[in-house]
């Protein structure tokens, strides 16, 4: 391994600032602890982002043996070498024996997986679209792979140019029960993706930045992990070729970008299961990635029309007047929403007495060619004396419980103690479909049936207004693990505004799994059952819009960019967010036009209407307590602006619909960065 020796030589020559790789963050809390780990401590006051504790040379923690190259891949065994383990906590002790498997799935896609073959560990329960047997040929593969030793690493090279696009022969690799770390050199500084977090630029800043990833009820903000979990990136090589990498892991993690250029992953559970696609164009990357995780959903034509929503409608009369005012102003408009105001005390599947005219209003707008979408939250109140949805949920045993008990974990949402359905369970999907069907048909009182056309699922990270549970959590290690990724509100561990991590869930095959492992799949697990229910009930294609996402969520839903703010800097950030979700395979996307939080200003809202008219998902929506911002809330000039720009949108709908078809059929992007052209 001549190349491996050259790397070893480089390490003995000294470490520049850009070559400093953080040594066991979470353990290296002092100079003494750092040196116990065999690393070097240097405090750099000029740049606080540079790690204080870093590797001084090659860390040969794992030796490589039994390397076997075949026409369909590579296998190898790894053995942990170090004898001094006093610096490690028990849950951070490196696993002694690991297996490496590389599979050449086809000529442009490979998988490399590192796992504990002696002890079964949690793996993401999502079936990707992989060939039943390898489809690559030695002559036509776009890549070559080498397993390296001293230190262990995997190298992937683009065959046509010789460019190394993955090179993990770096000293950072460690694999323990609750801390797994791997680094790779990158082919260039041009990196895009990872989410869901708000970014000021589409291209990621490689100058010592760490970004945490854990699904959370968190409005967009700098370095704050938000609603979804998307561990996928695309990188451009210096010659313009592109490749993409997915880490199929659903545990909390963070990623560090450094100017080497290099990338470090840290996750706190599961295994390392990477999938790489080699394009070579950016547009082909998205097509190949969505072939793997699933093509974007095909929305109905009406879902491309302009849409209005507001959290804070007083009653159905207010919505009815809005519909009439929009018609009188001749402003193109196809979809109206009801937020949680339509529910009785924010209870799913109920109707507020102030909205008893809503069923008739929905029927009326249907007669006029419009559509209606309702919101649903996953949390189900346990406070009520007569709440059939909760009672039937108990009968079906659908709620997440404390481990080894029959007791439900109660969180809090709005004013109620709530239980969270476990959407992995078959019984839960059956229960969920029945409850949704009762809203649509209302067999007890047909005059109260709500004939919705789409469903909007919110608060599904899952969100709670208390940390963990009412009364607190019970497992300190799972909720405050030895290494807490670089999340917003990190001192609160993993449970800030969400459920206790020890919650017991069950996969469809009945096998138990902790919420710690599948937290980031909660919204994902709710999405398909919601779309299935919608289509079975309405007998139409319909649309689901979800707040929390994971790779492959785009097969079933669109996504809006969350509770943004009425501020000028949100306009360009919305474009960045849409382009990122294009990479993630979610084409039906957009931001709340004019902003969700705060009062929108006239000029801001007018400009945002002009931008938002070209979002694939074009919806003006704002929050309770803020003043109205719909197109007929201002003056006749604002109405003229809205009418003009939305008329342009409507002339382009055949083209937008065709792009949506191309995304659904071939994986092409709809919101497309210019670099794809």
From TrEMBL:
Alphabetized GO MF terms: alpha-1,4-glucosidase activity; carbohydrate binding
What is the protein named?
A: Maltase-glucoamylase, intestinal
What's one GO-annotated cellular component?
membrane
**Principal cellular location given in the protein's record:** membrane
Question: PANTHER family, alphabetically?
Answer: ALPHA-GLUCOSIDASE, P-TYPE DOMAIN-CONTAINING PROTEIN
The family database entries (SUPFAM superfamilies) matched by this protein are listed as: (Trans)glycosidases, Galactose mutarotase-like, Trefoil
Q: Tell me the keywords, alphabetical order.
A: Disulfide bond, Glycoprotein, Glycosidase, Hydrolase, Membrane, Signal
Cross-referenced PROSITE patterns? GLYCOSYL_HYDROL_F31_1, GLYCOSYL_HYDROL_F31_2, P_TREFOIL_2
Q: Which GO terms describe its biological process?
A: carbohydrate metabolic process
Describe the family membership recorded for this protein in Swiss-Prot or TrEMBL: Belongs to the glycosyl hydrolase 31 family.
* Species of origin: Phaethon lepturus
């Amino acid at each position: 391994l001549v190349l491996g020796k050259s790397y070893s030589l480089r390490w003995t020559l000294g470490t520049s600032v850009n070559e400093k790789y953080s040594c066991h963050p979470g353990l290296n809390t002092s100079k003494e602890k750092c040196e116990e780990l065999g690393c070097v401590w240097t405090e750099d006051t000029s740049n606080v982002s540079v790690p204080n504790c870093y590797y001084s040379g090659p860390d040969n923690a794992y030796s490589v043996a039994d390397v076997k190259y075949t026409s369909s891949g590579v296998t190898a065994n790894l053995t942990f070498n170090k004898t001094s383990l006093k610096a490690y906590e028990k849950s951070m002790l490196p696993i002694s024996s690991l297996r490496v498997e590389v599979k050449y799935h086809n000529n442009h896609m490979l998988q490399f997986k590192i796992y504990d073959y002696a002890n079964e560990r949690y793996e993401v329960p999502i079936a990707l679209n992989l060939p039943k047997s390898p489809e690559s040929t030695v002559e036509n593969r776009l890549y070559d792979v080498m397993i390296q030793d001293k230190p262990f690493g995997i190298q992937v090279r683009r065959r046509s140019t010789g460019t190394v696009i993955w090179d993990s022969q770096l000293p950072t690799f460690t694999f323990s029960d609750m801390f797994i770390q791997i680094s790779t050199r990158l082919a260039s500084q041009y990196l895009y993706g990872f989410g869901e977090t708000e970014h000021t630029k589409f291209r990621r800043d490689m100058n010592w930045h760490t970004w945490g990833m854990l699904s959370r009820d968190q409005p967009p903000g700098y370095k704050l992990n938000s609603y979804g979990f998307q561990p996928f990136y695309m990188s451009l090589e210096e010659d313009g070729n592109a490749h993409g990498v997915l880490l199929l892991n659903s545990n909390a993690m963070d990623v560090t970008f450094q100017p080497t250029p290099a990338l470090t992953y840290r996750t706190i559970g599961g295994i390392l299961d990477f999938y790489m696609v080699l394009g070579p164009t950016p547009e082909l990357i998205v097509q190949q990635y969505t072939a793997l995780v699933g093509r974007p959903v095909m929305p109905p034509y009406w879902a491309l029309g302009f849409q209005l929503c507001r959290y804070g409608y007083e009653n159905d009369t207010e919505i009815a007047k809005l519909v009439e005012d929009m018609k009188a102003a001749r402003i193109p408009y196809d979809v109206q929403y009801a937020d949680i105001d339509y529910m009785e005390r924010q209870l799913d599947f109920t109707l507020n007495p102030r909205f008893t005219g809503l069923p008739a209003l929905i029927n009326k707008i249907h007669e006029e060619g419009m559509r209606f979408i309702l919101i649903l939250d996953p949390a189900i109140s346990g406070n009520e004396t007569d709440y059939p949805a909760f009672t039937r949920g108990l009968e079906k045993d659908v709620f997440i419980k404390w481990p080894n008990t029959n007791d439900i974990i109660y969180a809090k949402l709005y004013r109620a103690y709530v239980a969270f359905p476990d959407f992995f369970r078959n019984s839960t999907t059956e229960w969920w479909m029945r409850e949704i069907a009762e809203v649509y048909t209302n067999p007890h009182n047909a005059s109260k049936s709500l004939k919705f056309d789409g469903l909007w699922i919110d608060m599904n990270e899952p969100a709670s207004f208390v940390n963990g549970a009412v009364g607190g959590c019970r497992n300190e290690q799972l909720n405050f693990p030895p290494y807490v990724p670089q999340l917003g509100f990190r001192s609160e561990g993993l449970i800030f505004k969400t459920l206790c991590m020890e919650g017991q869930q069950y996969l469809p095959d009945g096998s138990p799994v902790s919420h710690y492992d599948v937290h980031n799949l909660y919204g994902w697990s709710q999405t398909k059952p919601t779309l299935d229910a919608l289509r079975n009930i309405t007998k139409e294609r319909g649309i689901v819009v979800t707040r929390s996402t994971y790779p492959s969520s785009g097969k079933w839903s669109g996504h809006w960019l969350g509770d943004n703010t009425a501020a000028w800097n949100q306009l360009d950030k919305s474009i960045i967010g849409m382009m990122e979700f294009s990479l993630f395979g979610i084409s039906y996307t957009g931001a709340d036009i004019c902003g969700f939080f705060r009062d929108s200003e006239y000029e801001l809202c007018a400009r945002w209407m002009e931008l938002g008219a070209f979002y694939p998902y074009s919806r003006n929506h704002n929050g309770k307590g803020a003043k109205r911002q719909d197109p007929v809330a201002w003056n006749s000039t604002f109405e003229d602006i809205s009418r003009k720009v939305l008329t342009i949108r409507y002339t382009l709908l055949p083209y937008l619909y065709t792009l949506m078809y191309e995304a659904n059929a071939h994986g092409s992007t709809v919101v497309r960065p210019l670099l794809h052209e």
